[in-house]
Here is the input.
Amino acid sequence: MTQVSVIIPNYKKLPLMKNLPAIIKASLGAEIIVVDDASPDDAVTYLKTNFPKVKVISNTTNQRFAVSCNIGVKAASGKIIVLLNSDVAPKPGFLAPLLAHFSDPKVFAASCLEIQRHEGKEKFSGRNRCQFKRGFLIHSAAPVVAGNNCWATGGSSAFDRQKYLQLGGMDRLYAPAYWEDIDLSWRAREKFGWQILFEPKSQVFHNHETTNVSVFGQRQMELMALRNQFLFVWKNIRGSRLLQHLLWLPYHFVFTAYRTRGLFIISFFQALWRNIK
Here is the structure.
């Protein structure tokens, strides 16, 4: 089997402790790396005591998602790296379908089918599509069948490590969160013509027990997502699409600002400030 490194950026002991046994079971033969992002609890001690075969990297200060992923990728020994959120539990056998795609040198990444259980029902996701509309890149869910993907989610996807490093990894411009994985996939496709795929046979349970809501609050999360939409466009979009973006701004300053209760305007100035710092 191609050497694989499973990388898990982590903050706080839970939910990782609930999912790590399933990750280990489904990743036999793979290197497993947990990048602990300065957890305020005893996560690192617990990991070293109870999972001695797991490689633990401890950030001395909180670096957030993108930087933690990049640290893990640089430390990995595998040719293929798999990024898993701490709230993800893969099904046994999830690796093989992902790895099969990397025999093609044009493949940059392959995403898993994510299963979310709620009130006895299962919701499937992981495949997505994008379109440039009203001056922004708009992303939405796509039918969960094998094929191309707009981006490989940083929470449950495999990447060619060398290509990831060649791109410089995820951009900390978007810190603390959102759009890092979209930006990474966009650069892979636009700069090098590499492929981003979706593999429905590779399945994981994603319980979305994210720490972002508890750390930032819902309003701040919405602001970050809106701000990073601006940053993505200003960084990556050129030509007629950038002109469209500028021409649509007056519309957004009125109607989108109203729909978002003013958050759109605040996010614009936040993005502007970050761009000129």
Notes: DSSP finds ten helices and twelve strands in the chain. The radius of gyration is 19 Å. The first strand starts at residue 4 and ends at 10.
